[in-house]
Amino acid sequence: MSNFTKKQKLIFNILLIVFSIVGLIGFIFYLTKFINLAIIFLSISGIGFILLMIIWFVFEKTNKKGK
Fold this sequence. Notes:
Elements: H1 6-31, H2 35-66
Helix pairs in contact: 1-2
């Protein structure tokens, strides 16, 4: 992550925090036996982390082309 710009690092950090909070909310719903809401929030969090990995690879590819 050393070759990313400050803006790209900020995007990653914000998205990591947001998806972690969504996952935590899903876990809290799971503990309080609201299984349907837990499934929804944990699914959103999981899909978000997968999208974040895709964004990571796209940023790496664009940064390598710029060099």
